[in-house]
Every structure is written in structure tokens, then in C-alpha cells.
Specification:
Layout: H1 6-15, H2 26-35, H3 40-62, H4 68-88, H5 90-95, H6 104-109, H7 114-132, H8 135-141, E1 146-150, E2 153-159, E3 162-168, E4 170-174, E5 179-186, H9 194-209, E6 216-222, E7 227-231, H10 235-258, H11 277-280, H12 285-288, H13 290-304
Parallel strand pairs: 5-6
Antiparallel strand pairs: 1-4, 2-3, 4-5, 6-7
Helix pairs in contact: 3-4, 3-7, 4-7, 9-10
This protein binds iron/sulfur cluster (SF4).
Iron/sulfur cluster binds at residues 5, 7-8, 11, 272-273, 278-279, 282, 284-285, 288.
Length: 305
């Protein structure tokens, strides 16, 4: 996020939370609401991860076979519920965005278009069957003697005095082969950063569990494509990761100085995205765009009553 847009990073991680209170400037109050919004793909990804965590728990505890129909039914219900809340209960989101949901597409476009609905349905079908048929389910959890260490939990470790926060989808220990495994379920497309993300998890295992990086199996399960990729990280990955880490933490420390500015002025102290395409899918575009700002602030004022 920092590399995409410094303003987005500052809003998301620092500035928006100032707007939780109603004595703050209207722009910051609206930023707080926008931070709590999700687009339908992100929402689907989060719900899919929740389902995966629950299904793996049941599988390991009871041996119950995974049911495609059951997962699909639950996911549909959850997605429909958020759609309904966003479409017909927007005032609740304006009043309390922590406990009421809003979809990006509904706030900015008024509804989900048919093409989008179709592509989410297709994605859901492919991801569910990709999960059920994945190598992690069939080749690892069903066949090997593994102990789940962590799943979907926020954890942190210190790297050169800086706290790094992460949430790995699944960390297990294979007692027979004495290796650790880390699995990252992906509902989106493959990206060049995926390996780097896994390298961060591997560093966490080294620091917190004393694992050697040669004894850590890293896996990306691309559910929509039904592809499984495995890696063992090497010193090049660690060096590359540390280089990016140092650059970004240095920049964050510099930017944190700007956070001392007053609430009324703070937004102008952070650079906007160079590539305007980044803004198309950004939650905060209602604040940055001259065309959208007035309309959205008026809706916010009406929404909070
Ligand atoms: S709308 Fe664009 S400029 Fe504004 S925060 Fe988002 S990405 Fe940055």
C-alpha cells in the first residue's frame, strides 16, 4: 500500500481512526467509514478464508469430508447478507461502520452490475472446488501426520527493532518429517509479491519457533486456478526481503513525522498516487476526488442524521 500511494497508507493505518469521534473534522469522520468498507472481491476472499479455517478444523477434529454444497450455501448466505446491509441499511454503516458493512460497489456505483455478479459466482465455484481438491487437503492434511500450529491469527515479531505484524493462513508441523509448513490460500491471481509474502512468514517461524529456513515448506494454493506452488526460501529471498523492509520502514518513519500535523491540515502532507488508475479501486477516492467529495460528504451528513 505504501508503494502504491503514501496518502492511502497514511489514511488506512493512521489518519482514518482519528475520525472515529464525532468532534473531528467531517473529512476524517468519513475516512473512518471508508476504511471499513470492502469491495466484493475482498469480501469474498475474507469469507472464503473464514470458511477454509472452519472446514479444516472440522476435518482434523472429526475427519468429516468437505462438502462443496455446504460451503457454497454458507458463502452465498454471508455475501447476500452483506449485500442487503449495504444496499438497504446504509444509514447503519454511516452511524457505526465497525459493526455494519458497506460494499465499495454500492457506495460508489449504487449496485452490483450483472457482469460482476456473474464473475463472483464463477469465482466462488472455482475457489471452492480448488480448495476441496487442493494438494494441501489431499496430499498434506489427509495423508501426513501434521499438527496445526496457527491459522488466521494475527502475530508479530521484531526485525531490527521494528514490529512486523502478519497473519498466516495456516502453519503446521509435520511430526514425521520434522518440517514446518506454511500455506497461503489465494482467491486472486498470482502476483510477484506472493513469494515475498511467504518469506515474511518463514522469517516469523525462524524467529518464533526456531525453525531453519531449509526446514520450512512454503505453499501458495491458487484456488481459482487450481494451482499449487511450493517454495523453499533461500538467502536471496531473505536479503531481498530485508532490503524492501529497510526501505519501507525508513520511509514510514519519515512519514510518521507528518502525523503530528493538525486534523484540519493533515491530508495535504502525504503524497497522492502517481498512477491515477490506483485510485479507481481505492476506498478513499470520495475524499481525494474533486468530483466525488461534495456528493459523498453530503450523503455522509444525511446518513449520520
Ligand atoms: S484515491 Fe488515489 S490518491 Fe487518494 S488515497 Fe486513494 S490511491 Fe491515494
Amino acid at each position: 500500500m505504501l508503494m502504491e500511494c503514501e496518502l492511502k497508507w497514511a489514511l488506512n493505518y493512521h489518519i482514518a481512526k482519528r475520525g472515529e469521534f464525532d468532534n473531528k473534522p467531517i473529512l476524517l469522520q468519513h475516512a473512518w467509514r471508508l476504511k471499513h468498507m470492502k469491495n466484493v472481491f475482498l469480501l469474498f476472499g475474507e469469507l472464503m478464508h473464514q470458511m477454509i479455517e472452519a472446514e479444516i478444523k472440522i476435518l482434523l477434529e472429526t475427519g468429516e469430508v468437505l462438502s462443496e454444497a455446504k460451503i457454497k450455501k454458507k458463502l452465498r448466505e454471508m455475501l447476500n447478507q452483506v449485500y442487503w446491509q449495504s444496499k438497504y441499511r446504509a444509514n447503519k454503516w454511516y452511524k457505526n461502520p465497525k459493526f455494519n458493512q458497506m460494499l465499495f460497489e454500492i457506495l460508489y456505483n449504487g449496485d452490483l452490475d450483472e457482469h460482476l455478479i456473474q464473475s463472483i459466482k464463477e469465482k466462488m465455484d472455482k475457489c471452492i472446488s480448488g480448495f476441496i481438491q487442493s494438494e494441501t487437503i489431499h496430499g498434506v492434511l489427509a495423508k501426513r501426520k501434521v499438527k496445526v500450529m496457527e491459522a488466521e491469527k494475527f502475530r508479530s515479531f521484531y526485525l531490527d527493532g521494528v514490529r512486523v505484524v502478519l497473519s498466516a493462513d495456516l502453519i503446521f508441523y509435520d511430526e514425521y518429517n520434522s518440517v514446518y509448513g506454511i500455506v497461503d490460500w489465494k482467491t486472486g491471481k498470482q502476483s510477484t509479491n506472493d513469494r515475498l509474502q511467504l518469506a515474511i512468514y518463514a522469517l516469523y517461524l525462524e524467529k518464533n519457533y526456531g525453525a531453519e529456513h531449509l526446514d520450512i515448506e512454503l505453499t501458495n494454493e491458487y484456488l481459482e486456478e487450481g494451482i499449487n506452488k511450493n517454495y523453499i526460501i533461500d538467502t536471496y529471498d531473505i536479503d531481498h526481503l530485508q532490503e524492501i523492509f529497510h526501505e519501507s520502514s525508513k520511509r514510514m518513519t519519515e512519514l510518521e513525522e507528518n502525523l503530528r500535523c493538525s486534523d484540519d491540515e493533515i491530508l495535504k502532507y502525504f503524497q497522492k498516487a502517481e498512477n491515477e488508475k490506483t485510485c479507481d479501486w481505492c476506498n478513499f477516492k470520495a475524499l481525494c476526488s474533486d468530483e466525488l467529495r461534495e456528493l459523498h460528504i453530503n450523503n455522509f451528513i444525511k446518513g449520520i442524521g
